[in-house]
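Appendix B, record 7
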Amino acid sequence: MNGLAAKLDNYCVIEINGIDSQKFLQGQLTCDVVSMAENSSTLAAHCDPKGKVISLFRLIKFSAQQFWFVFEKSLLPLALLQLKKYAVFSKVTFVEKNLHIAAFSEDCLPNDLITDAEVTTTADKTLVRVNAENDFYLLFSESEQAQAEQAEQWKWLNIVNGEPLFTAMAQGEFIPQALNLQHLEQAISFTKGCYIGQETIARAKYRGANKLAMFTLVADEIEAVEIGSSVQMALENGWRKTGTIINFAHYQQQTWLQVVLNKDVPLETPFRLKEDGAVYQLLENRFEEQ
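Structure tokens (predicted):
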């Protein structure tokens, strides 16, 4: 992936710090916070007691007492409300950071920032290297670093990498496995012990309770998409509404969709958004159930 230097104006950073930060987050999040190395990051989720995802974010661990959550902004009100509700007896604080956020491919990264470290911090910048099918960097700074308006390229990159572009439209609707989080980085730990929603998430793994997965659909034209709406799948006797659109990207004259569907949907099934609309190809889900 080359040529990416995108401003991420629709993302924000919440800092969690305090002597109880690691212990508190370990009992809240789907990932194993304790086993994370300092100066590392992973995708992670915070769920409600029924195991439904309330917030999905990149968690950056600087130390056992300092963490950053990188959210899509629409998630923030409910995400913070849920975290603070469980934090009343813990010595932790939540602070929204006033930072510019940008995403870079390595070829567009300023030369003075290129490094092999996963998380690098200077006086006024923090750089996070994300290892994915297409690697990229997240830069957090007090001054703006990226001038390009490349939001669609950024969204497309996440879709190709299989990382959910999760917004408030999907809060409280899906368990983590329906978004393929069990296959992404260290987003879910099945061995760390109890956390909010853990019983449902474990049941989905060990008893096969989850029937959904997130898929990518592609059409060779640009058309309007409504996040949270359904798609139509072709059957022998017509079309039927199914699934939920998580997000989309318009990139290089194509429309790319992230859609939660029944995980057993036949690969050759045609999809569309509306009558006389573009026909979408279902891409093979590269994640194998274990």
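Remarks on this record: The chain has a mean pLDDT of 93. Residues 76-86 form the longest helix (11 residues).
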